[in-house]
User: Fold these one by one.
Assistant:
Number 1:
Amino acid sequence: MIQHVGLEVHTASLDDEVAFWGLLGFAQVAPPVASLAARSRWVEGPGGFQIHLLVVEEPSVPASGHVAVVVPGYPAVIAALREAGHEAAAREEYWDAARTQVMSPAGHRVEVMAAAPPAGVPLRPR
């Protein structure tokens, strides 16, 4: 089980990045020690999964790497993202579940999913 993912973010986009993850159901939580709080912000989603937003002057953002999150209330979340000005592009459905791709304010690719695939079920070509 993955407990957290660290994403590099420039200071200028940090507040917007925290707000973006808030639209996906993540709430800001305090890092366990002050030294971490001085150089990062942490957000936590349902089930305890965390995104650690690591403040750096020159963030590295993978061109095609991404984080995928399953969100309750998928249609409302996608609407909220669009209303907040994020381009949310519907993607091909896999496992009969809707999914959308969106870029975070810091440029990270995020796949928003209506449901997780069933365990052990491979992707079947159409």
Note: The chain has a mean pLDDT of 92.
Number 2:
Amino acid sequence: MSDKTILVINTGSSSLKFGFYEEDNGKERLVVTGLAEGIGSRGGKLSVTDAGGHVLRAEQISFASQSEALDRAFQWLKDTSSTTACAIGHRVVHGGPRLRTHQLLTPAVRAELEACLHFAPLHLPVALQLIDQTQKLYPQIPQFACFDTAFHATMPDLAVRLPLPTELFQEGIQRYGFHGLSYESIVHQLSGNLPSRTIVAHLGNGASLTALRDGRSIDTTMALTPTGGIPMATRSGDLDPGVLLYLLRVKQMDTDTVEKLLNHDSGLLALSGGQSDMRDLEAAAGLGKADAQLALDMFCMSIRKTIGAYAAVLGGLDMLVFTGGIGEYSSTVRTNVCQALSFLGIGLDQTANKAHENVISADDSKIAVRVVPSQEDLQISRHCRALTYTSRH
């Protein structure tokens, strides 16, 4: 690896991804990537693979935290390579109302993130811990924060404002939107083939949809936090506010209990009676399990409803894009969503759909339907390289 390598760190609720990226003829290229899975559980695993997907090292190991997993990952990297990154990029889910652009991690930015913990209490503490950890290990290497909310800073007030008093808006209670790095990567990949009116569905354990006009976000399903929007694997999505009042008043739940319910015990998991992985849900539904079928149908219906609404927001639709783990690999979900949208002019090529090809719309479909892989980490590397160049000049 060269001395212009970017190290990207991307943490999830129970996983940690890291990777080295180099520039090759003006494009970012993955060199080595690693994944720690099952953090906080007994069935943990750490693996490192090369750009071709060949496993360089793998180990069944349990990690109590992302910090512990990162320590082990850094030790592996030291054992296998003498390369030192020229910059380190961190995915940060939420930057609050004042941090809406990707930027150098300075003490002032670090302090602002500390003040924003209440906006993303499940994500920001871990992100800050890993930022502090890498800065102690590599104090001379510039580090950058890449925010999932940055892409949605283009949304108009119609989408940003919530129907609440102005005082709350001024405190930062507004629609931020998330999965921004994923959406950015889709726009980057389709830069020459992105029509004016596009809807992107990022479907994974966390799921959201965004309406794009000329490649810019004008509306998105998640709002103040990543809990909002459509139902997800374990997250409730949007609820009648009266449900929360009922939980607080009648059930006498405290805020921590409500937070756990909404983020960890709801969504597909609750509807199906215990299954949150789409592969398991599809298998159970195929065996005639009514609860699993209900969860699958509600998930797809919420996606269809959003696509219909966003087609109205955009004044029509030219392209629908599926991305994220479910969006990229579940032909069943794509079929369920699209077949009921034939009135919009959407038609699927089922052979292409089942093969997970890049273009899955039929030849006579009025709307292009595509499957495009999410490249969050590549997008972080692109930003870090550009920001590193800017900071040096």
Note: The first strand starts at residue 6 and ends at 11.
